[in-house]
Amino acid sequence: MIKFEHVGLRYGVGPEVLSDINFTLEPGTFHFLSGPSGSGKTSLMSMLYLGRQPTRGLMSMFGKNVGQLNRQELKKLRQRIGVVFQDFRLLNHMSAFDNIALPLRISGQPEKEIRANVEELMEWVGLGDHRHMLPNTMSGGQQQRIAVARAVITRPKLLLADEPTGNLDDEIGLRLMNLFDQLNRMGTTVVIASHNTVLMQKFSQHDRIILDDGQAYLEKPQQTIKQRLGSMF
User: Fold this and answer.
1) End-to-end alpha-carbon separation of the chain, Å?
2) CATH of the domain at 119
């Protein structure tokens, strides 16, 4: 699904923010991405959703060398990825329903199927009574749930979420985590960036990628010793 070989990333002429990253994520796996502020989580996530190219090394996704793809080929890859951005990136001129339905409409699904799928998911995330509201009239937690629903509505092959439960109460946060878990059991590869150690402990069966000072480490369930992500993958 994803392979990084000696990947580095820098902004401009500054020092590398990520250095010599090596890992492979197999299809259908679930990883938490954690680390202190400034460790490079956002930078790594931006590469994973193809928003930024590494400045060195090899990055492969879905069996393709990302550095060799043209804009149209990158666009096709992005259609297989669902992303929950930390700043939501909702379209404020569109209703909550239409924001969630947008990926399905872009893919050309029949409107009858779109309506059924979106209404079911809105009920699941607790927004069934907010179909016609505009995002900028809703709370931060409600906007976050719209962003999550939009990311998962297409059942993507890869789901990336940056602090997806940050503005939510424990009950809704747990419900969304169960939704991610269910998608993972159906075959979606999931990567969630989070500072929430309590949440990660509740789902401790999943691996963790830990970033520290631009380096990446793997922590297996029930394992206390960090292993450097490298050739053992």
Assistant:
1) 13
2) 3.40.50.300
Asked if the structure places residue 39 within a domain, the reply is yes
Q: 1-29 burial string, b = 16+ CB within 10 Å, else e?
A: bbbbbebbbbeeeeebbbbbbbbebeeeb
- Model confidence pLDDT, tens digit, residues 123-161: 988 899 999 999 999 998 899 999 999 999 999 999 999
In a domain, 18, yes or no: no
pLDDT digits (tens, 9 = 90+) for 85-108: 888 999 999 999 999 999 999 989
DSSP string for residues in 80-128 = TEEEE-TT----TTS-HHHHHHHHHHHTT--HHHHHHHHHHHHHHTT-T
Structural domains counted in the chain: 1
Amino acid letter, 19? S
**CA–CA distance, 83 with 47 (Å, rounded to integer):** 12
- Asked whether 34 and 210 are in contact (CB, 8 A), the reply is yes
For the chain, helix, strand, coil in percent to 5 are 35, 25, 40
Are β-strands 16-25 and 158-162 bridged in parallel, bridged antiparallel, or unpaired?
unpaired
Full domain range(s) for residue 191: 26-51+69-207+217-223
The two tokens of residue 56 are 């060195």
